[in-house]
């Protein structure tokens, strides 16, 4: 795990229902690839402190995710809570139904995502990245390019989050993660087409190349084109 993404997801819960928000944060970490299948969640005491919830609330949330098939608890010296190697398949709610439920929130979410992620690409290109940050981007890019249809959305999410991470802004990373989660259910309802994945991977290559070359304008333009394509695809399936 990368520390900044870890911190962005496992930040203190806000107002409302602590149990529901704790479940949401843990799911966010899993679905965005911050904690990958087979990896261990942070230790219970540490995680409860970081989320600012009681250990009872955290245990209830973990139990709910265990029942849903996302995690399992292991005992012993090397025990803990681990993300399952095989994650539950996303429920196939019809895309149009999800869009109706989102209402005006769909356009709001797409606009917010566009503003955040184009800005993140530009900001990442403006920084002098460390060797570790460059390696992180390249590994996330390679993982996404090699991903199968089942895992593609998760690796795609992880790559986009990695771009936000290397801006050096925890607040931006958190905002990108939240914006992505608003659209995840709708994206899961859209069929993955080989042609679209190939094109998406080519666009990812262009974005990362521009960032590594420090070309802010090109990074912003490449990300804008990529997000515009996703929005067009979504609208196409909804009309």
UniProtKB/TrEMBL annotation:
Keyword DNA-binding set for record: yes
SUPFAM superfamilies in alphabetical order: GntR ligand-binding domain-like (SSF48008), Winged helix' DNA-binding domain (SSF46785)
Domain HTH gntR-type: 16-86
Listed InterPro entries: GntR_C, TF_FadR/GntR_C, Tscrpt_reg_HTH_GntR, WH-like_DNA-bd_sf, WH_DNA-bd_sf
Gene3D superfamilies tied to this protein: GntR ligand-binding domain-like, Winged helix-like DNA-binding domain superfamily/Winged helix DNA-binding domain
Keywords noted in UniProt: DNA-binding, Transcription, Transcription regulation
Protein name: FadR family transcriptional regulator
Source taxon at top rank: Bacteria
UniProt lineage: Bacteria, Bacillati, Actinomycetota, Actinomycetes, Propionibacteriales
The UniProt record lists the keyword DNA-binding: yes
GO molecular function, one term: DNA-binding transcription factor activity
């Amino acid at each position: 795990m990368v520390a900044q993404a870890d911190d962005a997801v496992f930040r203190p819960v806000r107002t409302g229902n602590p149990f529901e928000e704790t479940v949401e944060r843990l799911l966010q970490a899993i679905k965005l690839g911050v904690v990958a299948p087979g990896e261990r969640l942070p230790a219970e005491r540490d995680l409860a402190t970081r989320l600012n919830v009681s250990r009872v609330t955290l245990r209830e949330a973990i139990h709910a995710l265990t029942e849903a098939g996302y995690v399992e608890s292991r005992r012993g010296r090397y025990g803990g809570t681990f993300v399952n190697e095989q994650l539950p398949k996303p429920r196939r709610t019809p895309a149009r139904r999800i869009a109706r439920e989102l209402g005006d929130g769909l356009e709001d979410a797409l606009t917010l995502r566009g503003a955040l992620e184009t800005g993140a690409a530009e900001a990442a290109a403006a920084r002098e990245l460390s060797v570790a940050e460059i390696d992180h981007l390249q590994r996330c890019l390679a993982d996404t390019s090699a991903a199968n249809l089942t895992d593609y959305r998760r690796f795609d999410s992880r790559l986009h989050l990695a771009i936000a991470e290397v801006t050096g802004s925890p607040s931006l990373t958190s905002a990108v993660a939240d914006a992505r989660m608003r659209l995840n259910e709708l994206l899961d309802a859209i069929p993955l087409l080989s042609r679209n994945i190939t094109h998406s991977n080519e666009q990812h290559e262009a974005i990362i190349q521009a960032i590594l070359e420090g070309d802010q304008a090109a990074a912003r333009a490449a990300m804008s084109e990529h997000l515009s394509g996703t929005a067009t695809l979504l609208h196409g399936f909804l009309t």
